[in-house]
């Protein structure tokens, strides 16, 4: 149960007050009729699914009902930043640092 | 905008909790739970509409609460901050239409007002068990250090949600949507039946 | 003699927590026993010299009590006096006895004493290595289910109750600045230091009282018995406003962002069934700014031959039974240890008046302090040696001891036999790191303590005390005090100093890293050396797994079932890893560790559901007319969270009869339905029309004030997901209706587009679903009825179909919409919900002469189906475009803005031939009603698997047409009018039908426009 900062209510709330709505910053093409089926299909159907920092759209559904953005590390669940609609993120969607909790290499790195 | 209350005062009115409060009376020495008959107006104003903010002040006599999660009140009105552009105004029973009319006269620019008096209700919850009832129902931190008098939050409550405001050391007002009323009332009575 | 192992007279423990003046009778395996108030089942059984408490899972070997806490693997019992109060798999070491308690061993078929699997295990045990199920019960494969039943019966843990849980449970949310997990010396000290700053502190301990390890050992604090310090500290904390103390409360899950669950057992320690009005268990859902883990450590046993014979115990557990429960588990103790600390067990045993046969130390030397004490007590110490094998059947008769080389890997001399009936061992301590791993942390190996400690990846978590690998008491107290102060300061409080009790500092010799005692035979041939007692995993089994190629500890664990039991491997994980590591030729940290997941100990489902049961299982939403519906005999249907009247049976009517009557009454007279549950969204703003144009498929720019229009809403994929009528109240003011179940989704849909894509549009949305009650009257007499009650001019030429009017109905201000979902002349009367009942009752009063008939959702479904009106979510499934539904008339391609979904309507896949299209179906046998969902084929005689071309979406018997009607989606259906189709049924029959228009009744739509 995450604790999520709502940038409008200006305080942290339990995750159950929110709803995740997928990838952020999906901009609707201004001229859909000019797009090929493939390009339009990319917009409608395809979303990024990175391991690491991801910009996500969230809504404070049982609170102020406003939408906002969250940059979150999908591997460690760490919330890197929260920003309002209209603002830009500071943290880039970079690939994650090699995951030290990788379940297929559970051994500890031994200092030689 | 229509006045929604009938002229004939003999016509029976059933507030949201009318039936459930009779079926499941809240009879306890540890807390009291009562429905309050008030007028409810949902007012939407963009943060940029400063004229509207002035207009409200002239009609209601209160500054719109711009601090998130805060409320302001005087003898006649309460204004609750719900979202940056959303305010719930509570007024005396059956005065909501007159208030709406006045506000529409004064406010200009982009705004919206919706009478939601029939769609929600205010429950007054108070007593020694009031706070623990809230703790059994919501993940919000209701300790007075974090939830002081005048603070108002919309949050999860049992499996539903509501707006709650602290009005005193042991007292709260809960704004509940009509269709969830039976569930919420019964839940509170159940939660209050145990320490 | 009752309780032969209870210590009497001068030798009784001065710090016993058991009250001999309060005897309690309980039964175990149907035999009565006496214990005392404060006893656990385990301590009471040991007091009564009960050796065998169960049989092991796989080999059926007799087992006794090993430990004194949560880590107990053997004494797993079934508890409960009645069917409804059955609880499986409680640990006898954590359950207090109460008067009349009944418990049984969970395994042992036909009984614990005589166990079939025990015999099998004895005879065939060597043929049952890990993985033997995969290697033996292979053929014939169809007999596996039989084998499985027998295997389950022979082995197995407890059973679930077969009756409904009669208890009440609760959940409560808590917030704290500092949550301290564990109420031993570290936890209490940390809590005191944090609480004194004014921080909000919660201190929770799984046991029935605070004190932790201090209750088991004989340490002095500030020069006095530790219990004094415990009592004073708890007094201070109990009277502080800012502190919450929880006992019998296990912190069992550590979730993201310092959210933890605490499972409080309120009455389990005292009653079989909670007293009337009392909660049995409570789940605390805690959000803490800082968490201090003071969870302590579990002692590790040493692994040697036959180390599972009843009487083999953890050294610290023996001390616990002696000091805390005033019970000595046997008469003659042989102690084996790799460290100084376990010597205390020998001293405790000696002080109880019983004989210590010897202390077997695997090391060449021990610390001066303990050596002196042993010498003073006349206890023999044998260095550089180990117990290689225990002997005995249902109890220990003697042990074989041999010298060890200095690494502990080989025996360096011959074996000597020692009499004893109890073997206590200690291989050191494992910090209880479980909670720190729940959110993905991996503990860190500390070579100096030969154990794992919590990783510090969570910045808001501090581990202290033995739970962090700190063992000397004086150091624990100092560290915990700092932790408490530090945590409080991290929350913004101001601790300027720390305070803690003083404990003696002792000179302690280093421990020896040893886990597995070598045998004079190779491991695979030696008598079984158990690592995981609960799942019968042996050292040989682990070595075999590695030999068979399982190199990752995760694989070894799964292959051998190491750590799989209800104890989550508390005693076995580290020993198992050490053995695997050795076989792999790696170090322990190189081998890795395993992951721990919530919950630390098992949790009842009741505690998780809390009060969300029975009438609170889910929300029930009611309209303003609900009580009237109930009083008038409605049967209800769930529509989302709403309870909607389904039909109103009169007398003994069946549903079928009721629906037929309601349909005919509406088509011939006047029917009335409560349509309040439909979603209603108030839309205001100068850009309202533009916004509607963008979200609906049709055009809204020119909708005049006072007019309504039906709209279809599509996703960006072009598929219909909601529909409804939207009305123009004034130029910038609309009210949109949605389906009852889709209201919240549509509302969020509007918001997401407005907030994230078109914030420049000036428009606001507010839900008014509950504000307006909708009373809908329908039928040839509807206008007559309404005319008696309203001032609105109902002349149908002026108040046209799809108009709306404001006025007064039954004395109440109302909006009346001339909209129809039935195909009859209809009026939807909207009033403020508080007055709905008054208006509804007036309609009935005046409607009596017209035989006004209330109807519900079933009739509503039939009436609309007779007219071919779709219900989104019934006739659509997210894969139908407006054209698939033959509703191209609702699409305005000429709109300037490319409305949501428009581009997708031109996608190759969306315009292709043979898409499923909505049509009507008339069964050949008019009385046959095709089941909804029936699959449709074109050729009823084709071979299986048949080519399915669609399915039936809605199907009813139509009273007015006296035949069945159905709607279906069929590939290319719109071009197949008149074709016959077939619907094979599960019972082997086939229903034949003809494709037709879905408008079965009044195809010209004249009835809704009647003058």
Mind explaining what this structure looks like?
The complex is a heterotrimer of chains A (112), B (195) and C (1011). Chain A is built from 1 helix and 6 strands; from the N terminus they run E-E-E-H-E-E-E. By secondary structure, chain A is mainly β. Chain A has one domain: Folate-binding superfamily (Folate-binding fold, 2-Layer Sandwich). In chain A, strands 3-4-5-6 form a 4-stranded antiparallel beta sheet, with no helix packed on it. The N and C termini of chain A lie far apart (39 Å). Chain B has a single domain, classed as 2-Layer Sandwich (Gyrase A, domain 2), CATH 3.30.1360. Chain B is built from 5 helices and 10 strands, in the order H-E-E-H-E-E-E-H-E-E-H-E-E-E-H. In chain B, the strands form 2 sheets. Chain B has a 5-stranded antiparallel beta sheet, with helices on one face. The relative contact order of chain B is 0.21. The mean pLDDT of chain B is 96. Among the domains of chain C are: 146 residues, Ubiquitin-like (UB roll) (Roll); 189 residues, FAD/NAD(P)-binding domain, CATH 3.50.50; 208 residues, FAD/NAD(P)-binding domain (3-Layer(bba) Sandwich). Helix content of chain C is 22%, strand content 27%. Chain C has 24 helices and 49 strands. In chain C, strands 8, 9, 12, 13, 14, 15 and 28 form a 7-stranded mixed beta sheet that branches. A 6-stranded mixed beta sheet of chain C has the order 40-41-42-39-33-43. In chain C, helix 5 packs parallel to helix 11 and helix 8 runs parallel beside helix 9. Chain C is elongated. The mean pLDDT of chain C is 94. Chains in contact: A-B, A-C, B-C. At the A-B interface, strand 2 of A face strand 8 of B.
List keywords for this structure.
heterotrimer, A: 112 residues, mainly beta, four-stranded antiparallel sheet, two-stranded antiparallel ribbon, 8% helix, disordered C terminus, C: 1011 residues, Ubiquitin-like (UB roll), FAD/NAD(P)-binding domain, seven-stranded mixed sheet, six-stranded mixed sheet, 27% strand
What's a concise summary of this model?
With 112 residues, chain A is mostly beta strands. Chain A is 8% helix and 29% strand.
Sheet having the most strands of chain C: 7 strands, mixed
CATH architecture of chain A: 2-Layer Sandwich
Distance between termini of chain C?
Answer: 101 Å
> What is Rg of chain A?
17 Å
Mean pLDDT metric of chain C: 94
Mean pLDDT of chain A: 85
Strands of the widest sheet of chain A, in order across it, are: 3-4-5-6
The CATH topology name of the domain at 302-427 and 510-591 in chain C reads: FAD/NAD(P)-binding domain
Strand content of chain A: 25-35%
Number of distinct helices of chain A: 1
Count every beta strand of chain A, where a strand is a DSSP E run of 2 or more residues.
6
Secondary-structure element series of chain A: EEEHEEE
Envelope shape of chain A: globular
Low-confidence segments of chain C, ≥5 residues, pLDDT <50? none
Q: Kindly name the structural category of chain C.
A: alpha+beta
Which two protein chains have the largest interface (Cβ within 8 Å of the partner's Cβ), and how many residues from each? B-C, 56 and 56 residues
């Amino acid at each position: 149960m995450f604790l999520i900062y709502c940038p409008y209510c200006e305080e942290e709330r339990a995750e159950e007050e929110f709803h995740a709505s997928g990838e952020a910053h999906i901009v609707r093409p201004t001229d859909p009729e000019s797009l090929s089926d493939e390009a339009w299909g990319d917009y409608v159907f395809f979303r990024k699914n990175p391991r690491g920092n991801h910009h996500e759209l969230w809504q404070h559904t049982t609170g102020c009902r406003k939408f906002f953005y969250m940059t979150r590390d999908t591997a460690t669940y760490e919330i890197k930043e929260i920003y309002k609609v209209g603002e830009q993120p500071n943290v880039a969607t970079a690939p994650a640092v090699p995951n030290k909790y990788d379940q297929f290499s559970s051994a500890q790195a031994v200092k030689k | 905008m229509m006045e929604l209350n009938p002229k004939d005062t003999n016509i029976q009115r059933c507030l949201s909790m009318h039936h459930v409060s009779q079926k499941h009376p809240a009879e306890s020495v540890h807390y009291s739970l009562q429905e309050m008959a008030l007028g409810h107006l949902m007012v939407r104003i963009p943060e940029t509409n400063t004229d509207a903010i002035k207009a409200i002040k002239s009609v209601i006599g209160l500054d719109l609460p711009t601090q998130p999660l805060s409320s302001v009140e005087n003898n006649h009105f309460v204004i609750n901050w719900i979202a940056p552009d959303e305010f719930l105004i509570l007024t005396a029973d059956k005065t909501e239409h007159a208030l709406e009319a006045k506000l529409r006269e004064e406010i200009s620019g982009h705004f919206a007002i919706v009478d939601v008096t029939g769609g929600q209700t205010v429950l007054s919850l108070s007593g020694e068990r009031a706070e623990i009832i809230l703790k059994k129902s919501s993940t919000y931190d209701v300790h007075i250090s974090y939830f002081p008098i005048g603070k108002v939050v919309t949050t999860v409550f049992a499996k539903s949600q509501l707006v709650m405001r602290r009005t005193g050391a042991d007292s709260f007002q809960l704004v509940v949507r009509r269709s969830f009323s039976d569930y919420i009332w019964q839940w509170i009575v159940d939660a209050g039946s145990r320490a | 003699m009752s309780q032969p192992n209870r210590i009497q007279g001068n030798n009784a423990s001065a710090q016993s927590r058991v009250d001999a003046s309060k005897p309690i009778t309980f039964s175990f395996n149907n035999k009565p026993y006496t214990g005392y108030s404060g006893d656990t089942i385990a301590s009471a059984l040991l007091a009564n010299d009960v050796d065998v408490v169960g049989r092991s899972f796989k080999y059926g070997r007799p087992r006794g009590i090993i430990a004194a806490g949560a880590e107990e693997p053997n004494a797993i019992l079934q508890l409960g006096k009645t069917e409804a109060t059955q609880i499986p798999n409680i640990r006898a070491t954590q359950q207090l006895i109460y008067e009349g308690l009944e418990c049984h061993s969970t395994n042992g078929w036909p009984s614990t004493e005589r166990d079939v699997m025990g015999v099998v295990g004895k005879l065939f045990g060597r043929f049952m290595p890990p993985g033997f199920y995969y290697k033996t019960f292979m053929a014939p494969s169809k007999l596996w289910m039989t084998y499985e039943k027998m295997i389950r019966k022979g082995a197995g843990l407890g059973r679930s109750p077969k009756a409904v849980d009669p208890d009440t449970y609760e959940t409560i949310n808590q917030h704290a600045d500092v949550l301290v997990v564990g109420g031993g010396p570290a936890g209490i000290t940390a809590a005191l230091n944090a609480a004194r700053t004014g921080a909000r502190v919660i201190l929770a301990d799984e046991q029935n009282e605070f004190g932790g390890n201090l209750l088991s050992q004989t340490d002095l604090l500030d020069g006095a018995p530790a219990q004094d310090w415990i009592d004073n500290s708890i007094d201070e904390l109990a009277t502080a406003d800012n502190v919450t103390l929880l006992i019998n409360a296990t912190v069992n899950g550590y979730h993201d962002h310092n959210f933890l669950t605490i499972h409080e057992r309120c009455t389990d320690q005292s009653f079989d069934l909670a007293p009337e009005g009392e909660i049995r268990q409570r789940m605390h859902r805690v959000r803490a700014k800082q968490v201090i883990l003071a969870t302590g450590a579990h002692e590790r046993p040493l692994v040697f031959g036959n180390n599972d014979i009843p009487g083999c115990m953890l050294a610290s557990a023996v001390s616990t039974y002696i000091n805390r429960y005033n019970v000595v588990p046997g008469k003659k103790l042989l102690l084996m240890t790799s460290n100084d600390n376990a010597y205390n067990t020998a001293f405790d045993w000696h002080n109880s008046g019983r004989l210590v046969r010897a202390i077997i130390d695997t090391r060449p030397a021990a610390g001066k302090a303990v050596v002196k004490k042993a010498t003073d007590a006349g206890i023999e110490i044998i260095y550089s040696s180990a117990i290689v094998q225990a002997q005995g059947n249902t109890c220990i008769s003697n042990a074989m001891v041999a010298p060890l080389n200095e690494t502990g890997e080989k025996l360096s001399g011959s074996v000597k036999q020692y009499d004893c009936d109890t073997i206590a061992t200690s291989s050191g301590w494992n910090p209880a790191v479980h909670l720190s791993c729940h959110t993905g942390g991996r503990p860190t190996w500390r070579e100096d303590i030969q154990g794992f400690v919590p990783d510090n990846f969570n910045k808001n978590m501090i581990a202290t005390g033995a739970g962090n690998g700190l063992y000397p008491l004086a150091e624990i107290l100092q560290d915990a005090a700092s932790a408490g102060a530090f945590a409080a300061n991290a929350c913004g409080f101001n601790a300027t100093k720390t305070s803690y009790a003083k404990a003696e500092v002792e000179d302690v010799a280093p421990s020896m890293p040893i886990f597995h005692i070598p045998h004079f035979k190779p491991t695979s041939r030696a008598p079984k050396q158990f690592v995981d007692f609960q799942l019968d995993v042996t050292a040989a089994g682990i070595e075999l797994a590695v030999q068979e190629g399982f190199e990752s500890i995760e694989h070894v664990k799964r292959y051998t079932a190491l750590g799989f039991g209800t104890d989550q491997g508390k005693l076995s994980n580290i020993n198992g890893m050490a053995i695997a590591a050795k076989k792999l030729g790696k170090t322990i940290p190189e081998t890795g560790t395993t992951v721990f997941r919530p919950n630390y100990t098992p949790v009842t489902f009741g505690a998780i559901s809390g009060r969300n049961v029975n009438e609170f299982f889910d929300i029930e939403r009611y309209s303003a007319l609900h009580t009237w519906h109930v009083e008038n005999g409605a049967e209800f249907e769930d529509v989302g969270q709403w309870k909607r009247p389904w039909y109103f049976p009169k007398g003994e009517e069946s549903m079928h009869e009721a629906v037929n009557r309601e349909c005919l009454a509406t088509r011939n007279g006047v029917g009335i339905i409560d349509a309040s549950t439909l979603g209603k969204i108030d839309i205001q703003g100068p850009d309202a029309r533009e916004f509607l144009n963008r979200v609906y498929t049709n055009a809204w720019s020119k909708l005049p004030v006072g007019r309504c229009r039906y709209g279809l809403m599509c996703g960006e994929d072009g598929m219909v997901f909601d529909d409804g009528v939207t009305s123009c109240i004034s130029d910038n003011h609309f009210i949109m209706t949605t389906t009852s179940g889709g209201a919240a989704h549509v509302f969020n849909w509007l918001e997401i587009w407005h907030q994230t894509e078109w914030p420049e549009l000036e428009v606001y949305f507010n839900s008014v679903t509950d504000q307006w009650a909708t009373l809908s009257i329908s039928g040839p007499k509807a206008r007559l009825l309404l005319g008696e009650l309203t001032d609105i001019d109902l002349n149908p030429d002026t108040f046209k179909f799809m108009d709306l009017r404001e006025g007064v109905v039954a004395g109440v201000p109302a909006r009346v919409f001339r909209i129809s979902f039935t195909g009859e002349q209809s009026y939807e009367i909207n009033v403020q919900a508080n007055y709905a009942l008054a208006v509804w009752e007036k309609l009935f009063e005046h409607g009596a002469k017209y035989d006004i008939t209330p109807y519900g959702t079933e009739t509503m479904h039939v009436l609309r189906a007779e007219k071919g009106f779709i219900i989104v979510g019934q006739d659509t499934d997210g894969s139908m475009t407006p054209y698939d539904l033959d509703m191209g008339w609702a699409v305005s391609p000429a709109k300037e803005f490319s409305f949501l979904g428009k581009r997708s309507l031109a996608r190759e896949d969306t315009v292709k031939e043979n898409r499923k299209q909505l049509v009507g179906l008339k069964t050949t046998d008019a009385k046959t009603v095709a089941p909804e969902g029936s699959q449709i084929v074109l050729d009823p005689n084709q071979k299986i698997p048949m080519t399915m071309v669609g399915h039936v979406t809605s199907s009813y018997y139509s009273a007015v047409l006296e035949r069945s009607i159905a709607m279906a989606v069929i590939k290319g259906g719109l071009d197949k009018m008149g074709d016959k189709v077939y619907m094979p049924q599960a019972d082997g029959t086939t229903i034949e039908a003809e494709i037709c228009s879905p408008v079965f009744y009044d195809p010209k739509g004249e009835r809704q426009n009647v003058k």
